[in-house]
Amino acid sequence: MARKTGSHAEITGPAIRAAALSLFARSGYAAVSMREIAGEVGVRAGALYLYTPDKQTLLFDLLRDHMEHLLGAWADAKSGTTPVERLEVFVRFHIDYHLDRSDQVFLSYMELRNLTDANFQSIETLRRTYEDELQAILADGLDSGDFTLADVRVSTMALIAMLNGVLTWYREGGRLSRDHLQGIYWNMARGMVGA
Fold first, then answer.
1. Cα radius of gyration (the chain)
2. Sorting pLDDT into bands at 50, 70 and 90, what band is 9?
3. Residues in CB range of 13: below 8 A, 6 or more apart
4. Which long-range contacts (CB under 8 A, 24 or more apart) does 3-12 make?
C-alpha cells in the first residue's frame, strides 16, 4: 500500500519504533498492543501497518538494529595491540555504549523469549558475533601468557554478565563519574583474567 502524498514517514516510522521500545521495556512485549503503540504516537492503529507488518516484526527489528549498531560501534572503537590493551578498550566501550541504551539492552535480554524461532536464531547469531570479539581477546591473552584463565568461554560470559550488571544500579550524576566507574570495572576485569 502506498503512502499518501505529504505523509511523514521519516517522522512517524521512527516515532513508532521509539514508542514500541519504551512501551516494551516498561510493560513487556506481551502486555503491549499495537493499539497502545499507535496511541502513544498519536496515529490510528491501522496506520502502524504501513510501517510494520506486525508486532513480532517490530520487536525483531528493534533487537536486530540494536545488535547491528552495537557491532558497528565496536568495529569503530576497537583498538590496541596487546590483549591487555584490547580488553581495556572492550570493557570501557561496553559500559559506555550500554549505559546510553538501557531500554535496548533490557529488551535484548528479557524479550528474546517472545521471538519466533527464526528471529531468535538471527538475534542469537548477532549476539554471538559480539561475544566472539571478547572471546578472541581472551584467547589471545591466554596464548600470549598475558591472561590466566581456566576456560575462555566461561570467562567471556562471566565478563559480559559483570559488565551488563552496571545497568541495574548505576545512575548518571551519582557518586561515581562514568570514567571512574569504567576504571573500577577495568580493574575488576583485569583481576578476573589474571592480567
1. 20
2. low
3. 51
4. 3/50, 9/50, 9/51, 12/41, 12/43, 12/47, 12/51
pTM: 0.87
55-192 classified as CATH 1.10.357.10: yes
Return the closest-CA partner of residue 78 out of 59, 58, 67, 92: 92
CA distance 14 to 9: 8
| Amino acid identity for residue 11 in this structure | I
Contacts of 141 by beta carbon, 8 Å cutoff, 6+ apart: 83, 84, 87, 147, 149, 193, 195
Amino acid at residue number 195: A
Q: What topology does CATH give the domain 1-52? A: Arc Repressor Mutant, subunit A (1.10.10)
Residue 67 pLDDT level (bands cut at 50, 70, 90): very high
Q: Can you say how many angstroms the Cα of residue 70 is from the centroid of all Cα atoms in its chain?
A: 6
Give me the helices (H) in the chain, please: 9-27, 34-41, 45-48, 55-77, 83-99, 102-110, 117-144, 152-165, 178-192
